[in-house]
């Protein structure tokens, strides 16, 4: 059994909690209504507001409430989205909006325990000067501690709640689609299938779409028993509810074709007590249009675990360094290289990250694969090594590779999750000029041919001075908007006992963050989550004052905390790791230099502030050390 399985199951086996409904699921909508609501009209428009009015006819004695609901992402908003109440003239002003943005709006009335809605209109707010946008910026308001909406009946309110191991693709319709491992607080997701999806136009507001796979694919148990028969083992019929559905990877292959590689982890042991845990499979689904969430067509088996130890599978399940499998067939990442080759990379904990070339038309291995056990030479077609934490050790404490190509730098970047996923989880990165390697760390370590710890550290458990901070912060998706802006998405967890909740570490919030590139071509992730802050040019005078600086140097399982640092008007630094050094600012490149540290700087949301607002943050490297910072005042 994979150690990761134990960790995931232990974290998700929290005590069952009562479903906390908001009461709306029992209300009737537009059923036998004796009133009619007119399509609303927009009477005035600014960059931050829309004035709207409507009217209602019919049995007005039953009308107890009237108002307007609106959304950026939901074409038919309801009162579960954003709501503003109307006055006695059925008029209201929707405020706190973003300039030059399209909003969906419906009028509604409530009476006789039912809501009645109008038709939907769209309206675009006025354009706004960027500095005025910053002045009127309204930060996201959704709660990070989502216990009160964690159950299945509140899924339309999840936004980025209950996210684990996300993968993100920008589709032809302008939406970002996110898919994920089956995991949620209190196992709420089990009501709705597997590999759950959500989508967003702005990377801030996410619409939950549901599972893309409704049941275990028909091919999985027959394929498992086919392999077992060839190994001389008895047929098994595992409970379908005990299979694991982990870590999909979605890519746009071309217009009209999207591929999702997914992991299915089989339950049990190969042959009872005293043997290694059963194998995993990577399968493939395809879709022509991800807006059709039920349109994912299963294409079946792709690859499974390979072992170079023949039938010598009698290895104790806790003998991690001697595990039976050489490669673990989970955590796929799919890459179309700059030369047009198609590759599938995968691997988790066992021996390292490997890759094999796949056919561009089918997405499957190009040649007939040999039996998935034998000598090292016999199973070589199952993959070539790309990166290993320790050559020859089969317990890597690394997984979840994400490989992307940045044409601007000419490198392939491999992001990898390190360590246990409850608290220590952290993200590393290495790079190569060629997809097949060698992949090198920032310190020159050859991760392909020699192996070693990968640097730099991209994310790490951390905490600014306010709030609980975040742990279990890794297994990422890396994507761009096609206009030079890059993003990092992953889950992060609350520390244990946050808000006096003994199960708070099972709260998994999806994080989307801006990703910048240093002048020497290394990716840095911003210390605060993306909140669509207008990127007004940062003046040098704004940098003077107090900052919270975090030395993100690796410490297993430690939540790194902030120290106070001051940038003086005399360009001297006082306090913290950079005490006594000199600072300067390159406004054109948005680079803050402190001593020999080159820090990428930009505006982001201050999620710890109350109320949330905007601030200035930085991220950068000095050798193998990573630094994050936030302007505090």
Describe the main β-sheet briefly: 8 strands, antiparallel
Amount of helix: under 10%
CA(first)-CA(last) distance = 50 Å
Low-confidence stretches: 1-29
Radius of gyration: 26 Å
Give an overview of the whole structure:
The chain has an 8-stranded antiparallel sheet with strand order 36-35-33-41-40-39-38-37, with no helix packed on it. Strands 1, 6, 7, 9, 10 and 11 form a 6-stranded mixed sheet that branches. A 4-stranded antiparallel sheet has the order 12-13-14-15, with no helix packed on it. Helices cover 4% and strands 38% of the residues. The model is unreliable at 1-29 (pLDDT under 50). With 633 residues, it is mainly beta.
Task: From the structure above, extract its key features.
about 625 residues; mainly beta; eight-stranded antiparallel β-sheet; six-stranded mixed β-sheet; 3 helices
Outline of the structure:
The protein is 4% helix and 38% strand. It contains 3 helices and 41 strands.
Question: Can you lay out the helices and strands and say which pair or pack?
Answer:
Blueprint: H1 3-12, E1 28-29, E2 35-37, E3 41-45, E4 50-53, E5 56-58, E6 65-71, E7 82-85, E8 91-94, E9 102-111, E10 114-117, E11 121-124, H2 130-135, E12 167-170, E13 176-179, E14 194-200, E15 207-213, H3 220-230, E16 244-254, E17 257-265, E18 280-287, E19 297-304, E20 333-336, E21 342-346, E22 353-358, E23 384-387, E24 398-406, E25 411-418, E26 426-432, E27 457-459, E28 462-463, E29 471-480, E30 486-493, E31 508-517, E32 523-525, E33 545-551, E34 560-561, E35 563-567, E36 573-574, E37 583-586, E38 591-594, E39 597-606, E40 613-622, E41 625-631
């Amino acid at each position: 059994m994979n150690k990761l399985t134990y960790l995931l199951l232990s974290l998700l086996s929290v005590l069952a909690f009562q479903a906390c409904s908001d009461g709306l699921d029992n209300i009737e909508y537009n059923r036998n209504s004796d009133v009619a609501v007119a399509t609303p009209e927009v009477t005035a428009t600014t960059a931050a507001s829309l004035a709207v009015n409507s009217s209602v006819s019919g049995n007005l004695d039953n009308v107890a409430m009237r108002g307007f609901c609106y959304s950026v992402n939901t074409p038919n908003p309801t009162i579960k989205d954003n709501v503003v109440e109307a006055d006695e003239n059925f008029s209201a002003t929707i405020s706190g909006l973003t300039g030059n943005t399209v909003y969906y709006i419906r009028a509604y009335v409530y009476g006789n325990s039912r809501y009645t809605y109008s038709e939907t209109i769209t309206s675009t707010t006025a354009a706004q000067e960027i500095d005025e946008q910053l002045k009127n910026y309204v930060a996201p308001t959704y709660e990070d501690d989502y216990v009160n909406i964690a159950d299945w009946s509140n899924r339309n309110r999840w936004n980025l709640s209950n996210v684990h191991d996300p993968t993100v693709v920008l589709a032809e319709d302008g939406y970002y689609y996110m898919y994920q491992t089956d995991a949620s607080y209190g196992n709420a997701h089990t009501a709705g299938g597997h590999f759950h999806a959500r989508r967003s136009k702005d990377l801030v507001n996410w619409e939950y779409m549901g599972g893309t796979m409704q049941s275990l694919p028909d091919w999985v148990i027959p394929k498992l028993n086919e392999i077992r028969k060839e190994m001389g083992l008895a047929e098994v019929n595992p409970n379908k509810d005990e299979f694991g559905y982990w870590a999909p990877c979605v890519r746009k292959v071309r217009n009209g074709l999207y591929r999702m590689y997914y992991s299915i982890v089989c339950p049990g042991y190969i042959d009872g007590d005293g043997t290694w845990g059963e194998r995993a499979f990577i399968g493939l689904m395809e879709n022509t249009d991800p807006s059709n969430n039920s349109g994912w067509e299963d294409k079946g088996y792709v690859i499974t675990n390979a072992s170079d130890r023949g039938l010598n599978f009698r290895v104790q399940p806790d003998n991690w360094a001697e595990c039976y499998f050489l490669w673990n067939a989970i955590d796929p990442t799919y890459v179309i290289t700059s030369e047009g080759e198609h590759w599938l990379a995968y691997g988790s904990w066992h021996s390292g990250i490997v890759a094999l070339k796949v056919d561009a038309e089918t997405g499957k291995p190009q040649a007939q694969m040999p039996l998935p056990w034998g000598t090292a030479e016999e199973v070589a077609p199952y993959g070539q090594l790309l990166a290993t934490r320790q050559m020859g050790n089969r317990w890597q404490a690394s997984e979840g590779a994400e490989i992307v190509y940045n044409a601007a730098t000419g490198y392939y970047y491999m992001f990898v999750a390190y360590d246990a996923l409850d608290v220590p989880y952290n993200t590393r990165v290495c790079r190569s000029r060629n997809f097949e390697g060698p992949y090198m760390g920032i310190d020159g370590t050859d991760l392909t041919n020699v192996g070693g710890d990968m640097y730099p550290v991209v994310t790490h458990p951390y905490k600014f001075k306010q709030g609980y901070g975040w742990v279990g912060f890794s297994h990422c998706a890396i994507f761009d908007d096609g206009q030079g802006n890059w993003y990092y998405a992953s889950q992060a967890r609350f520390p244990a006992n946050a808000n006096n909740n003994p199960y708070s570490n099972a709260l998994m919030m999806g994080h989307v963050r801006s990703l910048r590139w240093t002048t020497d071509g290394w990716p840095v992730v911003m210390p605060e989550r993306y909140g669509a802050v207008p990127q007004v040019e940062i003046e040098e005078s704004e940098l003077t004052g107090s900052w919270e600086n975090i030395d993100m140097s690796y410490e297993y399982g430690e939540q790194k905390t902030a120290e106070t640092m001051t940038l003086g008007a005399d360009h001297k630094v006082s306090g913290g790791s950079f005490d006594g050094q000199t600072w300067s600012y390159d406004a054109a490149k948005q680079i803050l230099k402190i001593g020999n540290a080159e820090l990428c700087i930009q505006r982001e949301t201050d999620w710890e502030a109350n109320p949330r607002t905007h601030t200035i943050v930085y991220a950068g490297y000095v050798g193998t050390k990573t630094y994050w910072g936030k302007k505090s005042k």
